[in-house]
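Consider the tokenized backbone below.
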């Protein structure tokens, strides 16, 4: 899958590294494969000596699969001598000994020899030969040492891109301390018995409603077996929250099409207009209108759906907001509890009554330290990039804003 590991939101690692020198490569595809391998391992300087099919080469760019920085900065030379004229240390990769009295390194040893030289400011070059017959004796003679690979001696020939990849891998592994780009996610803390008990009560209630626990004489045994299943898997707090949501979703009905819930976008707008003109629900107990928030989450308007998707994709905003979540007695369109910021979608032709209710909600939130950004729904649908910039600015300056 091309580009499966490419993430342009992350920084390119551009530390000092050796120069890769391809000597008379025959195919543009192999140059592209070499450039891709270089990009994989943070090597960006590519020098090409007399490419057979000329330069630039569109086949090379196509196979490079996005390693455009390497391709665009590639330097072309007429001779190997010119390509390594400014280099203080040169390594020649080859599968043959060439009967030359030179040190012979594995890729790992070559990386260890090169690293301190590169760190001190020297230019280190790694030579890679032609696809058909590799480097000639005279070309190997220009190098300080030979690099060869621990491969099957009966089939030692490597593709050009493979050879570059092996060298790049050992270089990057050494210079990054063998650090992996990501680790296993941090697990949520183990679920406590109180949380497990609350979940099991919900599960039991819904199973009774579905008449699953039958016959009556086997009900107790079935419940013990179910309880043992969840105890045995040692669920985390997040596991139980997820399972709780699954049970409620199954019990309360399916969510509906992916573009919305049981209502389409227009119907969801009418629902919000109706709710906006009514008084806020009275919650004497101080609880949040969880049922209302669940209804609204399951039935987004078109503007909500588009903004929510964009918030998740923008690396500056991803993970910061929750949608249709209660804040006290109010259900907010989008809220970032960490930033104390609320995004209020303003529908077109909002009634006076709804505007008054929105103002009261804004005052209530402000009194509790929340900032409110009003976002017209029509602008979300027509100028979404500008709306995202408005949100980013609000996060930076800490003020109340309007899009």
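A designed sequence for it:
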């Amino acid at each position: 899958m091309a580009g499966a590991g490419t993430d342009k939101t992350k920084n390119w690692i551009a530390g000092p590294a050796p120069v890769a020198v391809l000597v008379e490569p025959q195919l543009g595809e192999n140059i592209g494969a070499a450039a891709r391998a270089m990009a994989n391992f943070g090597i960006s300087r590519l020098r090409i000596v007399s490419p057979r099919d000329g330069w630039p080469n569109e086949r090379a760019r196509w196979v490079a699969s996005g390693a455009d920085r390497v391709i665009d900065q590639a330097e072309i030379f007429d001779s190997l001598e010119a390509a390594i004229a400014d280099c203080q240390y040169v390594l020649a990769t080859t599968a043959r000994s060439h009967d030359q009295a030179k040190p012979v390194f594995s890729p790992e040893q070559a990386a260890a020899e090169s690293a301190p030289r590169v760190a001190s400011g020297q230019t280190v070059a790694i030579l890679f030969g032609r696809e058909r017959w590799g480097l000639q004796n005279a070309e190997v003679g220009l190098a300080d040492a030979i690099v060869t690979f621990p491969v099957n001696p009966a089939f030692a020939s490597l593709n050009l891109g493979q050879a570059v990849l092996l060298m790049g891998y050992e270089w990057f592994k050494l210079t990054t301390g063998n650090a992996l780009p990501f680790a296993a996610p941090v697990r949520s803390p183990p679920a406590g018995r109180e949380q497990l008990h609350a979940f099991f009560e919900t599960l039991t209630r819904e199973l009774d409603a579905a008449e699953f626990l039958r016959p009556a004489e086997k009900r107790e045994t079935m419940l013990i077996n179910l309880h043992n299943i969840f105890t045995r898997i040692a669920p985390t707090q997040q596991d139980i929250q997820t399972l709780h949501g699954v049970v409620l979703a199954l019990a309360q009905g399916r969510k509906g099409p992916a573009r919305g819930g049981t209502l389409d976008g227009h119907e969801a707008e009418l629902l919000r207009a109706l709710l906006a003109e009514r008084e806020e629900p009275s919650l004497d107990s101080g609880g949040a209108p969880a049922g209302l928030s669940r209804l609204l989450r399951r039935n987004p308007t078109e503007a909500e759906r588009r903004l929510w998707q964009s918030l998740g994709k923008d690396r500056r905003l991803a993970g910061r907001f929750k949608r249709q979540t209660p804040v006290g007695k109010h259900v907010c369109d989008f809220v970032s509890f960490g930033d104390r910021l609320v995004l209020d979608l303003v529908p077109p032709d909002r009634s006076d009554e709804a505007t008054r209710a929105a103002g009261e909600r804004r005052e209530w939130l402000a009194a509790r330290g929340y900032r409110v950004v009003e976002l017209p729904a029509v602008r979300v649908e027509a100028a979404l990039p500008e709306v995202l910039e408005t949100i980013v600015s609000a996060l930076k300056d800490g003020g109340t804003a309007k899009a």
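Confidence is low (pLDDT under 50) at residues 255-260, 281-288.
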